[in-house]
Amino acid sequence: MLLLYKMNLSTLKSCCFSILFLFFSQLVISQNAENPWKLNIGVNFIDTYPTGDSSPYLGNSGGIFEDFLNVGSHWNLGGPSVSISRYLGTGLSLGFQGGLNKIEKINGVTNPVISYYSTDAFLSFNPFNSGTFRPFLKVGYGLSSFDVNNSAVEGRLLSKNISKTILGGFGFDIMLDKAFGITLQTEYRSAFETYGTNHFQHQIGMSYQFGLGDIDKDGVPDKKDECPEIPGLKEFNGCPDTDGDTVIDKKDTCPEVAGLVELNGCPDTDGDGISDPDDACLNVAGSAEMNGCPDTDGDGTGDDIDACVEQVGPLENNGCPWPDRDHDGVADKDDLCLDEAGSITNNGCPELSDEVMKTINEFGTKINFAANSDKILGKKMRSIVSKIKEILMENPSGNLLIEGYTSNDGDEDYNTELSVKRAEAVRDLLINLGVEKERLQVIGLGETSPIGNNDSPEGRAENRRVQFTYKN
User: Fold this and answer.
1) 3-class SS letters over 388-399
2) Is residue 146 part of a domain?
3) Pick from 175, 210, 245: which residue ends a domain?
4) Which of 5, 30, 159, 383 is 20 to 30 Å apart from 470, CA to CA?
5) Do residues 371 and 439 make contact, with C-beta atoms less than 8 angstroms apart?
6) Domain tally, the chain
7) pLDDT in tens, 401-422
């Protein structure tokens, strides 16, 4: 320190700026983002002895100044010094400071009091933001005043005792806890004006760092903490990652089990791309459509709910085929004739063959009715109906629909009603001849679908008829 004091001013300035450049170029470390504000309150010591300054304005007739420079007791303990700074980033802080002092004791002799004050704006650089010992560098610009007299310098707003000042210095914080510390620092203050006085200002005080809160005490300030009420990790912006899978808990569907990022932090035991919570078959690879289960028989029902894993069946029957008691290809639930093999078109019931139907209709063309009549008259007509009965008895597995028709004589409603009666007349005769009632059904279609010309008596006679088809 003594060697530093004895350096000339140019050498000192060159040294200070070289040190500053070295720190700023090689260290880019955050100072303290958690508590960006720093308040320092302490006392300051003014010292002009090592500067070799010979200001004519300090002292009376120069005598006091000579004593001031050469007496060993040249440190003057003064009043308070206060500074406040705000962290900017990359280790830099911007702040303002001020100090008061009274220079009185010179060479052990009490002399007229010289009042002193200073005020500055400064930048500080803190290359280390952790640990108990935290050094910093400091540069600034401001005003200094040795209040010898109040006469003004010609052409200047400042009085003779106030000078613009550039400063450079260093110091360190000894942290007592996370917020409080002891600060020691020294500054060399160089006056711009020729009447100014170069001097050292040493300070010691208490510092308090504050600003951003940290509710969960995880070292991440609430302003930057994405999980401000839950302790977390700095690399995850203050959020916890309980299972250590790099997916923070608030985004992790499985926060207590390590998993995959692409599955929102959940594991995939069988490796089928379905996360375990959504996988109905954890240990067997499957498909998303089957909720992570395989579908062995390919019937669209996953093996986990398929009661017939190797037989194709509908989902509504638990993946099993519907039963078909009569083996006619129509499931029992849709088969109207459970114990008789039938056709799909006839809802599982048997039906008369095309050949039988053709024969019945050949006889049917010979059944004619008189105009406005539904009576089956004569032995010939009854004989024809009897032959149809015999065919039905020979083919007991088929049912018959009897369709009644009319000519266009009379109005439409009348003809429809008459056609129904004609079909019923044939049905009733067949029943009387021994055909089961359940095998027969009737419908009246009136004057629709004529087979003869209604403009001639012969054609109208042909249209007064019955026809036969399958009964479904």
Assistant:
1) HHHHHHHCCCCC
2) yes
3) 210
4) 383
5) no
6) 2
7) 999 999 998 899 999 999 999 9
